[in-house]
Amino acid sequence: MSLKKIYLIRHGQTDLNLQGIVQGSGVDSPLNETGRWQAEKFFQAYQHIKFDKVYTSTLQRAQQSVQGFMDMGLPHEAHAGLNEICWGWREGTKISPEEDAYYYEVLGRWQKGEIDLPIEGGESPVQVAERQKPVIDLILSRPEEETILICMHGRAMRIFLSQLLHYPLSQMDRFIHYNLCLYQLNFTGSMLWVEKFADVSHLS
């Protein structure tokens, strides 16, 4: 039985994370000093792993988070399907209390099953899942890549994990995340399970 090992991480911290400014897929912000430190800590902890491929979104904060591995000469593919959800016209803005209330209302409706509902001017969970699906199919169709590293974004990662593990998208908030946290998964070709869940021990 062949085993594919998937190391899935969220990008490191950006200044916009700190400032409470919405990034989404439309704001291509770089890592800040803390984010670069987080990326280096992850690299130091996992550089011994023999990764066959590095996958990222097309956004620089994801690519900078795994730059150490790419600098080792590992093959890299960037896919827009792995980009963060589009948060509509809120991207690049600091959330007001009124907008915050709307955001939590939308999240609540997603949790109740309204996963076709897009945030105003942006995407719905179903739309994100649809653009992720070809990337997931591609990654899982490559048995020769036995150990891979994927770096992406918080909300997109929740949707990605829901798809991989066959959870309803309405339950995606079960998959918590932090900057530079790790989900380690094993895939046999028919079964997939989580070995590490939002692990940040490498940052301590």
From TrEMBL:
Q: Which CDD domains match?
A: HP_PGM_like
Question: What is any Pfam family matched here?
Answer: His_Phos_1
Gene3D superfamilies in the cross-refs: Phosphoglycerate mutase-like (3.40.50.1240)
Which InterPro entries does this chain map to? His_Pase_superF_clade-1, His_PPase_superfam, PG/BPGM_mutase_AS, PGM_Phosphatase
Which top-level group of life is the source organism from? Bacteria
SMART domains in the record: PGAM
Extract the PANTHER family matched here.
BROAD-SPECIFICITY PHOSPHATASE YOR283W-RELATED, SEDOHEPTULOSE 1,7-BISPHOSPHATASE
Name of the featured protein: Histidine phosphatase family protein
Organism per entry: Nibribacter koreensis
